[in-house]
From TrEMBL:
Belongs to the YggT family. The keyword Ribosomal protein does not apply. One of its GO terms (cellular component) is membrane. It comes from Mesorhizobium hungaricum. This is YggT family protein. The keyword Nucleus does not apply.
Length: 96
């Protein structure tokens, strides 16, 4: 059971970094730092979008319009942090 919990924690940590990479990429794309016509850049952007959008979409639906500021990645990071801490402090010690 410990291996399963450690695998879930690793998956949460990886998804944490994917969300951060997606946010940074969206800023680079918005400010024309990266070339949007480059196929490699488009592939990375598309992959990050497909990985993060299913988790961000429900949050964006609930959030009010903040005038162009998207804080849904921050809320998702907080949810992931809470879930990770819940697993580490509640579930994992009960198994050990």
């Amino acid at each position: 059971m410990t291996a399963l919990i450690q695998t879930v924690i690793l998956a949460l940590d990886l998804y944490w970094w994917i969300i951060i990479a997606s946010a940074i990429f969206s800023w680079l794309y918005a400010f024309n730092v990266v070339n949007p016509r480059n196929q490699f850049v488009g592939t990375i952007g598309n992959a990050l979008y497909r990985l993060t959008e299913p988790a961000l979409r429900p949050i964006r639906r609930v959030m009010p319009d903040l005038g162009g500021i998207d804080i849904s990645p921050i809320i998702l990071l907080l949810i992931l942090f809470f879930l990770r801490q819940f697993i580490l402090t509640t579930i994992y010690p009960a198994l050990v």
